[in-house]
What does this fold into?
Amino acid sequence: MKKMLIAHSPDADDIFMYYAVKFGWVTQPDVAFDNIPLDIETLNVEALAGTYDITAISFALYPHIRDEYALLRTAVSFGEGYGPKLIKRKGEKLKRRFKVALSGRYTTNAMLFRIAYPDARIVYMNFLEIEDAVKNGTVDAGVLIHESILTFDDTLEVERELWDVWQALAGPDLPLPLGGMAIRRSLPLTAAIAYEQTLTDAVRVARERKAELCELLLENNLVRIDGPTLDRYLELYANDDSVELSPLQYEAIDKLYALGFEHGFYDAPIRAEEYTIPREYQGYRHS
It folds into this structure.
C-alpha cells in the first residue's frame, strides 16, 4: 500500500478534522495514512523546506510556498467574531515598544500583529509557552492561539482581539483566515485529487459524528481540554464551514494576501482559488 503522512498541529480542531481517517471511518483504496502532530510554526518552517507531502499551514505562509504546494480546499479554520487574543497581565498598561510573544514568524496572527503594532519587540516561541511567559513577566504581552483563547489564566486579560485588527484592516464582512492545508505539487494530479477528497470526507464525517468522535478523543487523551471546552472550541474552528472553502472564504484569503503584499510581506498579491488543485481534470480524463 502507498503510505501517506499527514502533518498537522496538535490542537483539537486539527486532530478532530483528521481522526476520522485515523479511526478508519474514512479510507482510501491502497493508501495507508499516518499522521504527525507538530506545532504550527514548525509546520510552517517544514513547509518552507518541502518536508511533508500534505501539511497544515498558516494561511499567511502560503504565498511563500505557492510554487511548491497547492492549497487544499478542506480542513480550514477561520474566525468569525473571534480569533487569536493579545493578552497581558491584569491592570498593566502596555508601552509603545512593549515586548510580545508570538507563536511564529509565519503565522497569520503574527502578520496581522506586525501590521498593527510595528514598534513592538517580538519574541517567537512555542504557542504552549506564551501564557506562562506573560504570567511570569518574561514578556509584557502575548498572542494566544488554539485552545488557549478559551482557557487562559484569570490573572490575565485581553488587550485586543486580533479579530478587531482584522476588521480594521479588511472590513467588517470577511471571516479571518487562520489555518489551512497544502499539498505538494510534485504528486501526481490524480493522486492529489483523491487525497483532497479523502480529507474532505474526513472533515464531513467528523462533523456528522461529532459527539462520537469527541468521546473517543477524550477517552484516548488526544486533546488537552475537557469535554465542554472541546465542544465550544470545535464550533469555533472545526465547524461546518471547515469542510470546504466557500466563495466568501476565498475572498477573505485574497484580502489577507493583498494586505500582506501592501505591507511588504509578499512579492505579489495572489488569488487563492488559482492555487487549488484543478479537480476538473478528472472530468476531462473521463469525457
In short: The chain has two domains: 2-78+176-285, 85-170. The CA atoms of residues 131 and 200 lie 33 Å apart. The first strand starts at residue 2 and ends at 8.
